[in-house]
Amino acid sequence: METTFLMVKPDGVQRGVVGEVISRIEDRGLRITALKMMQIEREMAEEHYAEHEGKDFYGPLLEYITSGPVVAMAVKGKSSISMIRDMVGSTDPADADPGTIRGDYGIEIGRNIVHAADSEESAERELDIFFDEEDYQTYSRVEEKWIYES
After folding, report:
1. Residues 8-58: pLDDT tens digits?
2. Looking at residue 144, what is its pLDDT?
3. Fewer CB atoms inside 10 A, N or C side of the chain?
4. What predicted TM-score, i.e. pTM, was given to this entire model?
């Protein structure tokens, strides 16, 4: 079992697809163990996107991600990082397969609905930025007994 980070960006919130994203996560049998809607402050955005500092799109990315509320989630399950990455689709919605979140809802690379951690290291770092230990909840899904105990 691993935990990953997923965020519905301002365009996803503004377009009303938060529920659809959550439904897709739950339909795959994954658990949302922390969830919050928030307005990201500039300092948090800089920390989150630190690896992009100095790139041409860094400034506009910070402006965009701080422009409206986001929904941040911790998602737990077997192979959750790769499962979420597959569900999200390619960064550029034009290249994303139909049936993926970005393929179905994304408009362009700068308005691609969601951010998902791309590795275990990224997930840990991003989860630490957005959540405190007391934000996490522990529970089991009914079907986990036969999914994870077989």
Report:
1. 999 999 999 999 999 999 999 999 999 999 999 999 999 999 999 999 999
2. 66
3. C
4. 0.91
Sheet hosting strand 69-77, strand order edge to edge: 31-39, 69-77, 2-8, 114-116
Which residues have a catalytic role annotated? 115
Residue with tokens 């994954």: 30
Break the chain into its structural domains and give their ranges. 2-148
CATH fold of 2-148: Alpha-Beta Plaits (3.30.70)
Find the DSSP H helices in the chain: 10-14, 18-27, 42-48, 58-65, 80-88, 101-105, 120-130, 144-148
Here the tokens at position 79 are 């192979």
User: 108 is written with which tokens?
Assistant: 């362009």
